[in-house]
């Protein structure tokens, strides 16, 4: 039984009245005061009919006399600080020890079904650093929601059509000389990305020439033959022109193979992938259906619009005058297909904060079209990620490529670990595996420890450090714990051995157990706020506290057998929570380092 329930029962006996759980407000005692937990007495004043300090004293006296779990108390104004008896904490540790999946719970058949969309790449370029933040956030949020009892479907929408795709197609057709991933030795997504950059370079040259001939910038853009060819290619694609569609299929197949390789390296996956080329027609149908029902309206040029002025927004284009679709049309079509495929209770879109307005509009349009999850859709709006040098631009080829960054992080981890002697005695294969775990862990942790709603600067050099708030620091602590457990051997340590409640534990050890006891609520908080950072920073605090304990107290050298057993169990469960917490972030932990 939790301390809150025990106190609630004692309060009901003290005041001879039923007390709602919400009135028993317990929080962690602030560091500057003595105690472990603090009872806020203000909600109880109408029962005591006394002032806050008198009420706190009355309750404190009663609890110390009647509740064995309460060792002592002190009163600070309207707050009752309670020191919890060591035996209570030992029993908490015994309970944690019994739960293999402590801090998480499994979904039931009738649990809410949450669909989470993340990644959303374009097939005209490889994944970059911005995609890495998106993928890591989407995957981690999916795992956290699963851990809080939801059924989860991880989904991706691939933007595989549109003018940007035609730009890379046209550039390859014009300047590619039949290059393929095989003939160049390049990943397919990199090859196509090069041609997207090539188009932009040639387009800028053409505009410069037209402007030099006396045209304004706007006139030059309207007269651009390259852009006209790209638009014609898009028209042909939408009309089903065989040659254009065949080229599109070939080039996209190269890109998909490249994406799959990157996703695998990053350790993310999807339950269902949708493609814009398959959803935009569904979207057009829904828009025309909305037009027929009077939800939307048509302008004289034939374009179809939604008037959202009564909702505090503006008018939104849904179909152009030539009948071609816009992004919003595709998103409506994708929503329809998803709702057909799954009985979604909540839809979460993991998309950067530059799309805030888009999702405000989408939510309204889906609701007007009758989708049950329309109003309740969640746009998980995260901040942009930049480098110390500033922003990145795909068209200009100044992005940090995801594949290059992953490879660089793994190599840096290997070099740093070797310098520090952490790979001594390892075979080359073992060293490579540890470098992969540490390198990817550093990358993921550095990104996920930041409040996702904030913009961030990613500095690869800072992310791999075996000291400070880094993934490497935490992974090393986990490996150290496993080393201790290996050294003690199976004869002296069993994962299931219970600890006697009267073992004489220190305040530092109590604090560690209290931190472990908070883990389930930390996971729930992370789920409620869609914030992996909550878990990342909790695990860091736990490891900091454990490292201090490890430095100050002997474990294997402790002569008191019961205390030695206690410290082994405490260490094992700190390791268990590190592994579970990092697992929710998509980060592996090495058994030795």
Description:
Strand 1 and strand 2 (37-40) form a beta hairpin. It contains 22 helices and 14 strands. The strands form four sheets. A five-stranded parallel β-sheet has the order 7-6-5-11-12, sandwiched between helices. It has a four-stranded antiparallel β-sheet with strand order 1-2-4-3. It has a three-stranded antiparallel β-sheet with strand order 8-9-10. It has helices at 3-15, 45-48, 52-66, 86-98, 129-147, 163-175, 181-184, 188-212, 217-223, 225-239, 242-266, 276-292, 327-341, 356-368, 402-419, 428-448, 460-463, 471-488, 507-517, 519-528, 532-552, 561-584, and strands at 25-28, 37-40, 70-76, 79-84, 113-117, 151-158, 272-275, 297-298, 304-307, 315-319, 346-352, 378-382, 385-386, 456-457. By secondary structure, it is α/β, with parallel strands linked by helices. Helix content is 55%, strand content 11%.
């Amino acid at each position: 039984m939790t301390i809150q329930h025990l106190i609630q029962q004692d309060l009901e006996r003290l005041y001879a009245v039923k007390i709602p759980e919400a009135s028993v407000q317990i929080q962690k005692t602030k560091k500057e005061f003595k105690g472990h937990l603090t009872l806020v007495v203000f909600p109880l004043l109408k029962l005591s009919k006394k002032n806050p300090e008198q009420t706190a004293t009355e309750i404190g006296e009663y609890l110390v006399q009647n509740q064995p779990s309460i060792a002592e108390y002190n009163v600070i104004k309207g707050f009752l600080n309670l020191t919890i008896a060591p035996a209570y904490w030992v029993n908490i540790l015994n309970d944690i020890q019994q739960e293999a999946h402590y801090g998480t719970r499994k979904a039931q058949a009738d649990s809410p079904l949450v669909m989470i969309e993340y990644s959303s790449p374009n097939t005209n370029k490889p994944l970059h650093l911005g995609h890495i933040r998106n993928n890591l956030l989407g995957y981690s949020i999916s795992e956290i929601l699963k851990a809080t009892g939801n059924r989860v479907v991880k989904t991706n929408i691939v933007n595989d059509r549109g003018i940007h795709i035609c730009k890379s197609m046209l550039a390859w057709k014009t300047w590619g000389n039949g290059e393929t991933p095989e003939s160049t030795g390049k990943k397919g997504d990199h090859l196509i990305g090069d041609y997207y950059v090539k188009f932009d370079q040639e387009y800028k040259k053409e505009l410069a020439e037209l402007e030099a001939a006396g045209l304004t910038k706007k006139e030059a853009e309207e007269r651009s033959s390259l852009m006209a060819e790209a638009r014609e290619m898009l028209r042909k694609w939408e009309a089903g022109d065989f040659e254009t569609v065949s080229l599109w299929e070939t080039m996209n197949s190269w890109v998909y193979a490249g994406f799959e390789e990157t996703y695998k390296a990053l350790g993310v996956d999807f339950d269902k992938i949708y493609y814009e080329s398959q959803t935009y027609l569904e979207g057009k149908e829904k828009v025309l259906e909305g037009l027929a029902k009077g939800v939307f309206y048509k302008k004289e040029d034939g374009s179809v619009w939604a008037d959202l002025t009564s909702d505090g927004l503006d008018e939104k284009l849904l179909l152009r005058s030539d009948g071609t679709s816009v992004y919003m049309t595709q998103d409506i079509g994708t929503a329809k297909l998803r709702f057909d495929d799954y009985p979604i209770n909540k839809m979460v879109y993991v998309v950067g904060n530059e799309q805030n307005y888009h999702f405000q509009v989408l939510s309204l349009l889906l609701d007007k079209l009758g989708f049950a999850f329309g109003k309740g859709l969640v746009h998980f709006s995260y901040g942009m990620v930049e480098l110390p040098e500033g922003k990145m631009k795909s068209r200009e080829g100044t992005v940090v490529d995801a594949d290059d960054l992953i490879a660089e992080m793994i190599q840096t981890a290997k070099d740093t670990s070797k310098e520090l002697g952490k790979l001594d005695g390892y075979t080359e294969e073992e060293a490579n595996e540890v470098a992969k775990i540490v390198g990817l862990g550093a990358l993921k942790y550095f990104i996920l420890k930041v409040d996702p709603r904030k913009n961030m600067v990613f500095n690869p050099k800072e992310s791999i450090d075996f000291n400070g708030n880094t993934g490497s620091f935490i992974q090393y602590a986990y490996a150290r714990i496993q080393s201790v457990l290996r050294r003690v051997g199976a004869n002296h340590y069993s994962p299931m051995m219970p600890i006697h409640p009267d073992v004489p534990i220190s305040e530092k050890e109590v604090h560690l157990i209290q931190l472990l006891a908070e883990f389930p609520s930390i996971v729930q908080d992370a789920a409620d706020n869609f914030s992996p950072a909550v878990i990342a920073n909790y695990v860091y605090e736990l490891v900091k506290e454990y490292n201090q304990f490890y430095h100050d107290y002997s474990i294997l050298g402790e002569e008191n057998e019961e205390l030695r057993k206690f410290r082994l169990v405490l260490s094992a469960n700190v390791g268990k929570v590190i592994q579970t917490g990092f697992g929710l972030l998509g980060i592996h932990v090495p058994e030795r380092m």
